[in-house]
Amino acid sequence: MSVQLEKLEHNMAILTVEVADEDFENALERAYKKNKNKINIPGFRRGKVSRVIIEKMYGKDFFYGDAANIVIPEAWEKAYDECEEEIVSTPEIDVVTLEVGKPFVFTAKVALNPKATLKKYKGLEIEKFEAEVTDQDIEDEIKKELEAQARMVSVDREVQDGDQVILDYEGSVDGVPFEGGKGENHPLTIGSGAFIPGFEEQIIGKKAEEDFDVNVTFPEDYHAEELKGKEAVFKCRVHEIKEKQIPELDDDFADEKGFDSVDKYKEDLKNKLSERKAKEARNKKEEAVVDKLIEEAEMDVPEAMINTETKRSVDEYAQQLRYQGLSLEQYFMFTGLTEEKLMEQSRPGIEKRIKGRVALEAVAEAENIEVTEEELEKEFADMAEQYRTEAEKIKEMMGEQEIKMIKKDVCIRKALDFVVDNAKEK
Question: What is the pLDDT of residues 213-236, one digit of tens each?
């Protein structure tokens, strides 16, 4: 197999791949074996007709199409590995020659990893991000912790804002019930905004087992077309009223959290908040530095690279949804999005991420940043911990390309640390 690379404008390139005769012959034989049971020739048992006879009857190129589909992925993978340039997009394949008596040739149009020219990367001026923990921060965190331990307790009184009620309701428009307008024993927190505007407020002041009507008007932008702007009446009954009881901040609460006293609980809370705020400040600082670095860089990012990364991002999101028991099609149905709209929404973030990475690659090159064996071993150890296996098993699973990408990721992180540490806060 031979591979020739022709560079084009905007960091695009065409790889011309000529497949070795023996490789294409092997693919023809595999195509024959794959299809022979589907071919029916009078006088021969199905699946027992030789390739020679089939080619005599239907032409020498009968299996060429299937053979090409077999050999292209394999030949492309070899061409990708042999290419000295870094390919960063899905190839656009085009068959050049697929004829009897001639070598099989195809081309692959790809994007090459762009290079950035940096005007400045040391001493970038960014906003100062504070990480100080205030007394108010601690009080707010304590309030969240107490809220998290709150209990819903049944009470014998009228409904108040913030209560949870167990509710029966049935809605109608002009006396006619509508689909989805009925519920029984439905839990509803007053003030949550879960129901139509004006609905929850009319439950305040009602008592348990009291029958009452709620009058509302559906919003003009309501999702059900037949209900938009319509006046509706809901016949309701509250079965149970529950109020939120928040525990006191005392030594008993601290003990439940694993501390001897409230003071020690607060001290631990302050330490955790300090760590969290420091991490948040660092993240904001990194984001600001990368934004500034992109401004100081010149690069020509190929569209094919952005499109490939955007599609990959959508595919990864679809996989996450599947883990949650939801298909991408169901997600689109619930949200009203399409794959095109999702890609359109994702694109700006993907483009920014690519530009930041390319700019940091330029920093790593300018500063001769490399990955030590110790740093690589730590990466393997971290991956092993994440996947609950041994570092040696992770190494065994890694090919040259995977290890190369891991090294590159570490280089980029080191370059980011370098730029952040050298930035000037104002």
Answer: 999 999 888 878 888 899 999 999
Residue 127 — very low, low, confident or very high, per pLDDT cuts 50/70/90?
Answer: very high
Cβ(328)–Cβ(313) below 8 Å: no
Q: Which residues pair with 16 in a beta bridge?
A: 4, 107
Residue 418's pLDDT is: 97
CB atoms within 10 A of CB 195: 20
Ranking 152-156, 389-393, 406-410 by mean pLDDT, the lowest is 389-393
User: In this structure, are strands 125-126 and 424-425 parallel, antiparallel, or unpaired?
Assistant: parallel
DSSP string, 152-217: EEE-SS---TT-EEEEEEEEEETTEEEEEEEEEEEEEETTS--SSTTTGGGGTT--TT-EEEEEEE
Strand, coil or helix: 38? helix
Global pTM reads 0.75
- Res. 147 pLDDT band, cuts 50 70 90: confident
pLDDT of residue 330: 86
Domains within the chain, CATH numbers bracketed: 2-113 (3.30.70.1050), 151-245 (3.10.50.40), 262-425 (1.10.3120.10)
Task: Report yes or no: 376 and 410 within 8 Å, Cβ to Cβ.
Answer: yes
Report yes or no: 27 and 105 within 8 Å, Cβ to Cβ.
no
- From 313, 323, 162, select the one nearest 245 (Cα to Cα): 162
